[in-house]
Amino acid sequence: MLRGEITTAIRRALMQELAAVGYGRLSIEAVARRAGVSKTAIYRRWNSKLDLVLDVVAAAAGARLPALDTGSLRGDLTLLFQVVAHALRHPLASQIIPDLLAEAARNPTIDETLQRVLRARQQEIVGRLISRAVQRGDLPTTTDPDVAVDLIVGPLYWRLAVARTPVTDSYLEALVESVTLGLGALDALPRQRVAPATD
Fold this sequence. Notes:
Blueprint: H1 3-25, H2 28-35, H3 39-43, H4 49-61, H5 73-89, H6 91-104, H7 108-136, H8 145-162, H9 169-185
Helix pairs in contact: 1-2, 1-6, 4-7, 5-8, 5-9, 6-7, 7-8, 8-9
């Protein structure tokens, strides 16, 4: 195999092994065996199991998406939800994501990397979607981008990755409508946070 082919084979094997056994039981030996390469080939590229996993996860999160610019907020949300639903339905993603999130709760390095990668990715994709919607007048200029991102990303992730409930076309249509209405209603929310009651 050529150098690039070896790296691709290792990354593919890592994802398959991670889905099969989880991070805790993952070993470089098993990844090498699945990829058909030596352990040396892996250690030549990554210093440790953790480095390998974080690099592959960051690369997967950074995979290119189609341009989400349909000319309307509803159109952009429809396309985004279709792409995300397709990605989260993939067996590897549905097994790997919950496992990595559980591992992140125990491993600060994984947690920090996942937070950084996911936050950057959300800002790049969803933040840009919100910005265009504001520029077009689909959303008010006072739209809170952080709340908007949570409102867009949260429901679909919860349904597919946490509740693991199937998503139908009619559900996606209803979700687009609900999120669009919810985003428009953000402007009506009070800006001042209420302090919790104290005894």
